[in-house]
Design a protein that fits this description.
3 helices; mainly alpha; 84 residues
Length: 84
């Protein structure tokens, strides 16, 4: 309970159905920024080439100020929990 891992990745269906185009644009403008992203590269690659390509593809993107987010405390699950 209360742990983000217990939430759907893209949200609850009812919340998604209620979104407007303005809501989506606001979310994108707020959170989609290179300083809020991680690039993951897997495989037999040359590091220099990965850095060159990343700079070519993403180097022109500018960081934006991100909102402060309070990290909620994880609720303790009610009831007895056992591990055997």
């Amino acid at each position: 309970p209360g742990n983000p891992a217990g939430q759907p990745v893209i949200g609850w269906p009812a919340d998604l159905a209620a979104l407007t185009l303005a809501d989506l644009r606001d979310w994108y403008d707020t959170w989609y920024s290179p300083n809020n992203a991680i690039l993951v590269v897997v495989g037999d690659v040359a590091a220099e080439e990965v850095f060159r390509q990343a700079e070519r593809q993403f180097g022109g993107l500018r960081a934006r100020r991100l909102p402060n987010v309070a990290i909620p405390r994880t609720a303790v699950a009610p009831g007895l929990r056992e591990m055997t």
